[in-house]
Amino acid sequence: MQRSHTIGVDLAKNVIQASVVSCNGKELSNKEFSRAKFAEFLASQKSGLVAFEACSTAHHWARFAASHGHEVKIIPAMAVTPFRQGHKTDKNDALAVAEAARRPNIKAAPLKSLEQQSMQSIQRSRELVIQERTATSNHIRSLLLEFGIVIPKGLAYLRRHVPLILEDAEIGLPMAFRPTLHRMYLRFQAMEEDLAFMDSQVNAMVKSNDGCRRLLELEGVGPIGALLLYATLGSGTAFSNGREFSAYLGLTPKQYSSGGKTNVIGISRHVANRRLRAVLIQGARSYVHKRKSAETSKDEWLFALKARGGAGRAAVALANKNVRTAWALLTQGTEYQKHPRQQAA
């Protein structure tokens, strides 16, 4: 069915540019709106295709447009750039988004629901707390080292040694620095409490969500991996098959082919969902390392691959297979079945 019009939107924090293009490709208008005026503009428009460049607030506005009967697309920035003509301005960017959305071969980013976005937000906050805890730990260690006080590696040693250092009056730590060290250690403890709370929140969300619960059955997928998989994949309808989802995460080999000659050059290190891919590969590495005997047919395949290509390649291949299986589980609503190893006659 031919759409009546296409609206390309260039988003910003306070100023939003919208370009309206007719079904014949003619630009009808290209105006600047405030946030409130843009909401009124979307609500007053007839149903059509509204396209946003993938950036901050894109999912919020896409959900808002969908609630008013519009078809929505979120276009990656790399796909929009080739369609921009002239200088980089808000008007040209909005028109480029509309032009990219009209092309049938442009892959749109999946739209996240409120549940998916809340899951992702919890995990992003958890990552931030982990980074701040690590930075605070290193800060405390490095300052104490200037006074000749060495704390071994590991958070457990930090928890054990800092209270003893604060109580020891003859260890050589100046009295002027002791109150500051105490406050830094209190900040470290507060971040540990925040992290424990977020971990309990993640576990509760995974247990209460049926999709996450089924994803936990996959080899090498824990609560964090299941949460991020569901937050990214959702119902799975945004991807036509498991391989497309795996390519979206950057787990399939890149090709650099020409003249009928195919060259496979490994997975992409830059264009991918690197956060989720890192979690999945780390979980797969842990499974490959701890698994000592093959109990299922999948373990047999994994052990044979490990013998041929090494543990690293086996882990990436396992993550790739898990992602494809996750797509099948969520799109078909089935349970994960482990096939027992077939005994040799």
Keywords:
13 helices, five-stranded mixed beta sheet, single chain, alpha/beta, 345 residues
Give an overview in words:
Helices cover 55% and strands 11% of the residues. It is of the alpha/beta class and 345 residues long. A 5-stranded mixed sheet has the order 3-2-1-4-5. The radius of gyration is 26 Å and the shape is globular. The mean pLDDT is 90.
The sequence of SSEs as H and E is EEEHEHEHHHHHHHHEEHHH
Strand residue content: 5-15%
The parts where pLDDT drops under 50 for at least 5 residues are none
Provide the helix percentage: 55-70%
Q: What form results from the Cα inertia axes?
A: globular
Strand line-up in the sheet with most strands: 3-2-1-4-5
Largest sheet: 5 strands, mixed
Radius of gyration: 26 Å
Mean pLDDT: 90
Alpha-beta classification: alpha/beta
List how many beta strands DSSP finds. Answer: 7
First-last Cα distance: 59 Å
Instruction: Count every helix, treating DSSP H or I runs of 4 or more residues as helices.
Output: 13
